[in-house]
Amino acid sequence: MHKKRIVVKVGTNVMTNMNNRIVGPILKNLVRQIAYLYERDIITILVSSGSAIAGKEVLGSCLAEDKSTRRQIYSSVGQPRMMRHYYEMFHDFGMRCGQVLATKRDFAPGRYRENMINCYEGLLSEGIIPIANEDDAVSLSMSMFSDNDELASLVAQLVNADSLIMLTDIDGLYTGHPDDKNTKLLHEVKVHDDVEKYVQENEKGEGEGRGGMQSKLKIAKDTASKNIPTYIANGKEENVIIDIVEGKKLGTKFTI
After folding, report:
1. CATH superfamily of 4-255
2. Which of 38, 141, 238, 248 is deepest in the core (most CB within 10 A)?
3. Is 168 annotated as a binding residue?
């Protein structure tokens, strides 16, 4: 049994290029870091975006006029494509992975939640890397997560994770716009610190993803308040996950 468990959420902007195409080497680097930690008794639960983008790569245009229906179609086609990427990459490191699809209702107290716990604990006990995704094909309105940041937070709480790392395409929470030369990166934030004032409406967004910095800030504080240290960091840094786990000062850390 692994001594520690962490949840890593990787956003759409981390894994795609400017043409909204999935970048294989970035995913490979992500898996490499997870494999490195695995050998050191730290097991990762991965919350991965990218299914809608992967679906668009396969289908190109979609004739459905309804936005929600298009999302369902792209995600339904893209999920197996993403899992094939991950399956092959983890296999290259001698590891196994499994997909866990969920809607928001699955985290509500009751038998759905108990089933989720049993599934995750079973996978983790076998040394299998769970890859959590929203079940976009059936998840609509009340059963939707606000974004994958919320899903990652709920998974972290469900499995009693030692930390949550949310990877995006900027280095963390700044005191202003990331592109402003006078802005500063906040390396540590307490849950009661008034930092919401630093998040601007014209922030550098999440592109194809649903969650921007406002969402990340809220989720990070909520998760940290449950005594799960939470990080917002740049997923395109070569060893970002390893560096954070090993205690290096990287990204923005949220604590009680």
Report:
1. Acetylglutamate kinase-like (3.40.1160.10)
2. 38
3. yes
